[in-house]
Amino acid sequence: MPGWIFVTDFAAGPSTPTCRNCTGGNCDDNLLPELLQQALLTSGYFNVFSPAKPAGKCSHGGSFDRTSRQDPVGGISKDDIGSSHGSLHLKAADLAVDATMELLEDVRLSVGDKNFLRLMGLSQSTVLCFVIDTTGSMSDDIAEAKRVSFNIIDSKRGTQQEPSAYILVPFNDPGFGPLLVTTDADIFKDSINKLSASGGGDIPELCLSGLQLALTAAPPSSEIFVFTDAPAKDAHLKSTVTALIESTKSAVNFMLTDVLASRRRRRSLQDPVSRSMSQSDAQLYRDLARASGGQAIEVTKSDLSLATSVIEDSSAGAVVTVFQVVRNPGRPDNFTFTVDGSLRNMTAYVTGDSSLTFSLTSSTGVSQSSIQSSGPLASFTTVGNLRRLSLNTENQTGSWEITVDSNKPYSVKVTGQSSVNFIFNLVEAHEGAHGDFSLKEGRPLSGGNTSLLVSVTGSDTVKVTEVTLFDSSGPTEVNGSLQSLGSGNFLVTFSGVPAGDFVVRLRGEDSSSTSRSTSTFQRQASTQIKTSSISVTAQVNNTDVEPGSTISVPFTVATATNGVMNSSATGTFTVRANNDRSYALTTPSTIAIAAGGGGTANGTVTVTVPASAASGTDVTLTIEAENAAATDVNYAVLRFSVAPRVTDINRPVCQEVSSSSNCPSSSSLCASSQWEFIANLTDGINGTGIESVTIRQGNGTLNTTTVAGAGGENITVATYSASCCSQNVELTAVDKAGNVGTCVGQVKQSTTAAPVITATVNTTSTGGRTLSMSQSLWICAAVSLLWY
Question: Which InterPro entries match (predicted)?
Answer without folding.
Answer: GBD_Hemicentin/VWA7, HMCN1-like_VWA, Ig_VWA7, VWA7, VWA7_N, vWFA_dom_sf
